[in-house]
Amino acid sequence: ARGNPAGVKAEPPAPDAIDLGAQRGRWAAFQERHRLSSEEVARLLLDAYEYRGLVKHTGGCHCGAVRFEVWASAVLHVFNCNCSICTKKQNRHFIVPASHFKLLKGADNLTTYTFNTHCAKHTFCKTCGVQSFYTPRSNPDGYGIAPHCLDDGTVQTIITEDINGKEWEKAMREHKTIRDMSKP
User: Fold this and answer.
1) What residue ranges define each of the domains in the chain, with the CATH number in brackets?
2) pTM of the predicted structure, to 2 decimals
């Protein structure tokens, strides 16, 4: 069950709570009307500002065992890498901060492949073998999301940028923004 049970008033403000002034009544009414705890209301408010201008995309693997949601632009900046594994898998991905990604189901159905530096975590579904997201070496504090694993309807445009993963260190030194893409 979410929030407060029917008929229970919204939680009173804590002694160290922010003074809401004239908005206190609106806040309490909203909280009670939607049966949300103070933490749930705060999460809604933070999400509204943190994800401003972003779209909630949903997606997953082929068999449906793995499902996720990710907040990103409707215009996706997708990397097409030519390193050995990306070439073999045809891995094209866009990068998001970890805080913009949520695994909805299937954690127990994921397995991970690593190689070389073992920084990148190539996660994929144990059932169908599809990698719908992974942890990239360039951004170990974020996720690389496969745009072709997103559900239809939320992507407006895809802009593709080639990355020379065969010379990974040089490519990362020369790229001006890739390492910041996993920062909120």
Assistant:
1) 20-51 (no CATH), 53-178 (2.170.150.70)
2) 0.73
